[in-house]
Design goal:
It is built from 8 helices and 17 strands. By secondary structure, it is an alpha+beta fold. Among the domains are: about 80 residues, Structural Genomics Hypothetical 15.5 Kd Protein In mrcA-pckA Intergenic Region, Chain A; about 110 residues, 2-Layer Sandwich (Alpha-Beta Plaits). Strands 7, 8, 9, 10, 13, 14, 15, 16 and 17 form a 9-stranded mixed sheet that branches. The protein has a 4-stranded antiparallel sheet with strand order 3-2-5-6. Strands 1-4 form a two-stranded antiparallel sheet. Helix 2 crosses helix 3. About 30% of the residues are buried.
Length: about 300
């Protein structure tokens, strides 16, 4: 089992490659050249499978103008490519298969002050830099923890695996220890459990267990079954409380036991298979049923997300 703690020196901003900046923009329409064997694949999946980022993050890179196909800038989501005939570049760097084609799966106990980004221009310590395995190749974080948050995060180069762990459809729960400023009352706890309204709509709710409450602080154990951006901080802010400490202690059945802050290890085959199984075998809480009802309501109203 390998471990690493060294966050390394602060990174210097890297200049954008001139080849990408000077490349002419011939078209922004999706490239859908048919493959002779019918082997077209979605661009975001192709990028994720080559270790660029998760599919959601790849969509952001596409719409922000970082991706070229055969020298042409592409911003359209849903673009399909023929991997046998077309060349995909991200900021001027052609995507190639990882050496040996091996899939990599790491578990990191992220310290505060470390960011979950692959941006080479980032000057702060990055989660990917804490993985000292010399064979890691191009990897990325599965989801994100904000800079101030600590705890477990998975890094991989397997796009399908990342999608299954991140997508709420598969029911992989994440559990956090949360410290609030002030004493939260039972009514506000119930509001969070039932779901509160955020910018994206009503949250699916959470399983909340009170560990300790004093006049000054509240210590809670919070389990989520979906993952909106900074969801826990925003849920408690909506009922008038500030999160002063946030640590992810569990992903599915995987806990932080034995993994010190700043250290990493490989995921075991059993852990990988358990995550791929999704919600099966995981402890069901009230959030599971609320999430199922929320999905059913979206489907009934025709607002469910298409795949």
């Amino acid at each position: 089992m390998s471990q690493a703690r060294n966050q390394g020196p602060r990174r210097k901003p890297a200049s954008r490659k001139k080849s990408a900046a000077k490349r002419p923009v011939k078209s922004t329409k999706p490239t859908e050249t048919k493959a002779s064997d019918g082997g077209l694949v979605r661009l975001n999946k192709f990028m994720a499978d080559h270790g660029v980022a998760s599919r959601r993050a790849c969509d952001e890179l596409i719409t922000e103008g970082h991706v070229f196909i055969d020298g042409e800038l592409v911003r359209e989501l849903g673009t399909k490519i023929d991997p046998e005939k077309q060349v995909v570049e991200v900021d001027g760097e052609p995507l190639r298969e990882a050496k040996g084609g091996h899939k990599r799966y790491y578990l990191l106990n992220k310290p505060a002050g470390v960011v979950c980004t692959n941006d080479n221009r980032e000057q702060r310590a990055r989660a990917i830099d804490l993985i000292s395995d010399r064979h890691k190749g191009r990897i990325y974080t599965v989801g994100r923890l904000d800079e101030a948050s600590k705890g477990l995060i998975i890094l991989t180069n397997d796009g399908d695996f990342a999608n299954r762990v991140m997508h709420p459809r598969y029911g992989v729960s994440k559990t956090y220890t949360v410290k609030l400023q002030g004493r939260i009352n039972d009514n506000d706890l119930q509001r969070v459990r039932e779901g509160v309204y955020l910018a994206e709509g009503k949250s699916a709710g959470a399983r909340v267990v009170v560990r300790k409450r004093t006049r000054e602080t509240s210590l809670l154990l919070v389990t989520l079954y979906e993952g909106m951006n900074r969801e826990i901080r925003r849920m408690f802010a909506s009922v008038g409380f500030t999160v002063v400490d946030l640590r992810r202690a569990r992903i599915g059945a995987i806990t932080d036991r034995g993994l010190k802050e700043g250290h990493w290890r490989f995921l075991t085959p059993e852990e990988i298979n358990g995550l791929l199984a999704g919600g099966e075998g995981q402890e069901d809480g009230p959030g599971t049923e609320r999430l199922k009802r929320k999905r059913a309501a979206r489907k009934a109203s025709g607002r469910g997300k298409s795949e």
